[in-house]
Specification:
Layout: H1 2-9, H2 12-32, H3 37-48, H4 60-79, H5 83-114, H6 119-128, H7 134-143, H8 150-178, H9 182-206, H10 212-216, H11 219-239, H12 244-255, H13 261-285, H14 296-320, H15 325-333, H16 340-351, H17 358-379, H18 381-388, E1 412-415, H19 419-431, E2 435-439, H20 442-450, E3 455-457, H21 463-469, E4 476-479, H22 484-496, E5 502-506, H23 510-518, E6 523-525, H24 527-542, H25 546-565
Parallel strand pairs: 1-2, 1-4, 2-3, 4-5, 5-6
Length: 576
Amino acid sequence: MFEYQKRKMLNPFIQFGLIILVVLGISILMRLLKQPLIIGYILAGILVGPLFFDFVQGSETLNLFSEMGIAFLLFIVGLHLSPKVIKEVGKISLITGLGQIIFTAFLGYFIGLLLGFSTLTSIYIATALTFSSTIIIMKLLSDKDALEKLYGKISIGFLLVQDFVAIFILVLVSSLAGGTGTGSVLTSTLVKGVILVGVLFLISYYFLPKLGDFLARSQEFLFVFAITWGFGLSVLFLYAGFSIEVGALIAGVLFSISPYGYEVSSKLKPLRDFFMIFFFIILGSQMVFTDVSSMIIPIIIFALLVVFGNPFIVMVLMGIFGYSRKTGFMSGLTVAQIGEFSLIFISLGVKAGHVPQEILSFITLISLLTIFGCTYLIMYSDSLFNKFSNFLKIFERKKIKEKEIPKKKYDYILLGYNRIGFSIVRAFSKVTKNFLVVDYDPQVVKKLKQQNIEVIYGDADDSDFLEDLEIYKATVVVSTIPEIETNELILEVLKRNKSNAVAILTSRQINDAFDLYKQGAAYVILPHFLGGEYTSKLIETAKTDKRKYEREKKKEIEILKKRVRMGHRHPDVEKD
């Protein structure tokens, strides 16, 4: 009778429903405690795993959902990584990625020996500590709207470098354990990869643009085509000996050449968020815990090495190459954890008989601690940077390639050129020639310079940058950046310097708008309400006069054409 009930409970549909209920319960608790949902998903995975309820026993469906979530995530990330972006951050990503791996491996190895581990076990532990979880970090960066920021692009770059090194090492260990030839496997895989990428690049460069009008006729067809493209290339790369992750990422990069990258990205994000839940559930359910009470001190030491040592070497390297302490700090935090590749690597070592079983539990606990710690560090990275900004000056050279502070003073300053900023610049141009645009996207800066608009690269999240720019001497300061913390920082700098500047800020939430008004904002832009307000005024003015609507239509078409030339796309609706 018991076996019958157990089989009934493990029916895939019932199993799925129970897991979703546990996830919902833990998510509600996380929301009430104001904790990151990712932590809740991993805790839910531990609960539904073999340690407690064992709802995921033999669940191929959940593993499939997990892989689909990873594919969606990396495909979307690839949509933000056009070939221009890769060229822009490729060098520093390669240097920091390899530099962090070498530093952590050497230091981890010697610490392992000092703590009494054998030489081979120390090598395994040190290597495992070098691999960060690309999946978790990309999800956190996406949640913070940081994929388009410079530190987000650099972080994705060196995390991918880590992944390629990890894949190489995993193939090496698997080949050694199985007695197969490592060199021939790696060479054939690499040749296949180069040929595949080359052929697909030519197809996407010459074929996708010609499909533009055909795809645009139906939103549903565009949606289906994008999913087919992403999953199709993922399967192709998997068949060629690569991972699904590599295929999905390359599919996204190649699709970014088309004009529909942003639109596809916004449509796929709800699917990504749903399926990614199962990745974290599987990750939590596969956590292996045995009696490691005798290893508590080594666990803490190695966890501290990952949380503080890994970011340290990234900040040092990025400082040497002329990046600001803010970019170095934000990038460094993304390597303050170890993830799935570390667990897979140690599992291979256990199967090969190179390391004892308890080392898998040892690394699992380090992974859990560092993932939790890193999640909080990234969530509150802006506040942490503001608190430790002065101390972090030791990681910054006197001449920073990101900073380009002009000597001239400006009456009007725009912080953040985007869809809203486009209209603000038009207004500035009618009022004065003495205005400046500040943006963190090098491509935007380049385009504006080509239009002879005075623009500099900069990050409005950096209070020192705002001080150096002397925004408090401007007459009008406009921020199109919707993050409440950034706008509060702008108001703080203005207030600290006793400025009388008119501060026009932007917010996504009505409550945030009220807070900014209380702190001294002259006006707060709520983008989602602008269209309705403008339309209501048009109706009040034009009433039933079709000629007035026709004149307004012609002006709007001209503006839209200019936006298309500037590369503007449909807005990202993830955080409505």
